[in-house]
Structure formats: C-alpha cells, structure tokens
Design brief:
- The protein is α/β, with parallel strands linked by helices.
- Helix content is 50%, strand content 14%.
- It contains 12 helices and 8 strands.
- Strands 2-1-3-4 form a 4-stranded parallel sheet, sandwiched between helices. Strands 6-5-7-8 form a 4-stranded parallel sheet, sandwiched between helices.
- The chain is globular, with a radius of gyration of 20 Å.
Length: 338
C-alpha cells in the first residue's frame, strides 16, 4: 500500500510509427480545447478533411527515425525517468519510502486514466501530480491538470477521492539548473566567438497576455544557466521553436536566431532545449538535424554546430523532480497547519 501516489505526466507520442497510430495520436492531440479553441463545428471539418489525411503521412519519416524496433526513444526514456524519480524519493526517506510513482501521457499511452487507476489500486490517499514541464504554460501544465481533474471526477462514484497536490513547474530547482549547465558543458566548450541558443517550445502570445508565467520563467531559467556557464550576455540568446500554425506565437524563433548567427559569421553555435525533459521529434529532428543543416549551409567554412540533447535520464533531473514533489507536500502541510 502507498500513502502517496505520484503521477508523472508528459505529452506523449503515438504507439508506433504506422499511419493509423499517428492519426489516432494526432486526432486526440488536436481535440484538446486548450490547444485549439475554435468551435467544434468549424474545427472538426478542418481536422478531418485536411489535417488528419495529410500530416501523419508527412511526419511519418521522422517518427520512423525515432522508432527503435520495440518502442520510441521518447517512451523508453520516460519509463526510465519514472524509475529514477521513484528511487530519488525513496533515497530521501520521503514518507518512509511509502510512495508509488506512475507514468502517464496527456495524449496517447499510458493514459492519465490508466495511471490514476494504478495509483488507486496501490491505495494512494494523496496524489501528487507532476506535469513534466519545467516552466508552466496553459497548454502544457494546464491541460495536464485539467485532464487529471476530469478523470478524477469520473472516478468519484467509485469512492476514491485522494487529496490532490499539483507541482507547478520546477524551473527554480537547483538540481535542474545544475543538470542543464552540466549537460551543455559536456557537449560544448565556449570560445570568444561562440554562441549558445537556448530553445523552448513556443506558445501563443495571447496566453502570455492572459497571465501565463511561461516567458518570465524561461528568461529566469536561461539567465541562471548562462550564469552557471559564465557566459556574457552577447554569448547567449533565448529562442522559440515548433510553431504549429499561423497564429501569433512567442518570438524570436530559434530558426531566425540560427540564421542570424550564420549571417554574423558565428563559427561555433550550440543549441540546447531546456524546456524538454525527454528527447523527441522537436529536439532530435528539429534541433539536432534540421537546424544543424540550416546553419551549416550558411555559416562560415569549418563552422561547428553542437546540439545538446534533453536531460532524459540524467540523475539531476530526477532529483529536481523528487525535491519538487517533497516541497509541494511540505507546503501543503504548512498551509494546513496555519
């Protein structure tokens, strides 16, 4: 029996790189009203007639590249993260080791409902929900917490109503910041004319105007990492990638910053993705390959491009997540006693 259940939630991926699996995953993803808020009567025909018949076929080669024969690299790394967070919590003596950690995906499998069912079966009376996004945004952390709430509402008739605690990001955790700086240092040694771009998934500008702390937390994270690396202000920049459509997204775009570096004659460019805790299409393909080719085709001769992979199973990331869980529980206790 576990008094405390910890539910780790990442974005997810398709079950396999087949067209039916990619279509099913994209269909679920694009039915999230937090991501697409057009009225269903307008959006559903666009989705069914134009997007779903085309985008899976266009994206399939990238997914096939990420497939490792028995699963995606993303999924395997996510399961390793679950094990590491579980171990990190037990090593702290948290709840005397009386804790159960489960992994879920906001879209795809294992589903959030499956994770909650497992924690209910384990006897968890307290639920700590950890969206695996260091910085908080409505379309990441927000949609995960919204889905958990909906699932718990559906489970209420069964009599399971755990105390719920939400971890709202872990961007300030020293172990996370140290791990980021160390991962960059392992891959790249800056020189006088080097430049580092820290790239985050873009989000809609309207959400920032509505109060999302995402952009401010990104700036604070980037400054903390740059300080740990001893970089001057002109040696690093923040960029945004993976714009989904033609709406107004946070800028500057990472691709534009890469082009700028090439134009300015920067011969040593490093791109890291601190907002992704697990390698995926956006890191491995978009940053590790596409942007590399884009930069080297326009950069000076003998230019060097360094891609820093996501933290994946870095022990520092697991410690950061475990500490964020503990702090969330402690904060609740303090609030209850006040």
């Amino acid at each position: 029996m576990a008094d405390t259940g910890v539910l780790l939630i990442n974005t997810g991926t398709a079950d396999n790189p087949s067209i039916p699996a990619l279509t099913a995953y994209l269909d679920e993803f694009l039915h999230d009203r937090m991501l697409i808020d057009l009225p269903p009567v307008l959006w559903n025909p666009i989705l069914k007639l134009f997007i779903l018949p085309r985008r899976p076929k266009r994206n399939q080669p990238s997914y096939q590249q990420m497939w490792e024969g028995d699963g995606f690299a993303f999924t395997k790394a996510s399961w390793r993260q679950r094990v590491q967070v579980d171990q990190a919590l037990r090593q702290t003596g948290f709840e005397g080791g009386n804790v159960c950690v489960e992994l879920s995906m906001r879209y795809g499998n294992p589903s959030i409902m499956a994770g909650l069912e497992a924690l209910r079966a384990a006897g968890a009376r307290r639920l700590v929900v950890v969206p695996l996004y260091p910085q908080v945004a409505r379309v990441t952390t927000g949609t995960c917490l919204d889905k958990v709430s909906a699932c718990l509402g559906g489970m209420a008739p069964s009599g399971w109503s755990p105390q719920v605690i939400a971890v709202q990001g872990f961007w300030e955790e020293p172990a996370y910041l140290d791990a980021l700086a160390a991962s960059i240092s392992r891959s790249w040694t800056p020189g006088e004319h080097s430049r580092l771009i820290m790239s985050w998934h873009s989000t809609l500008r309207r959400d920032i105007k509505r109060g999302d702390p995402y952009a401010s937390q990104i700036r604070a994270t980037a400054q903390a990492v740059a300080s740990r690396l001893g970089l001057a202000s002109e040696q690093w920049a923040v960029g945004y990638q993976s714009r989904f459509d033609s709406r107004m997204w946070l800028e500057p775009f990472t691709s534009d910053l890469v082009d700028k570096a090439a134009r300015e004659g920067v011969a040593d460019l490093c791109v890291a993705t601190p907002g992704f805790v697990t390698n995926c299409l956006e890191t491995t393909i978009e940053v590790g390959q596409t942007l590399k080719e884009r930069y080297l085709s326009a950069a000076p001769d003998h230019a060097r491009y360094t891609w820093v992979p996501a933290l994946d199973d870095d022990a520092g990331l697991a410690r950061a997540i475990a500490h964020a869980v503990i702090q969330a529980v402690v904060s609740l206790h303090v609030a209850d006693e006040a």
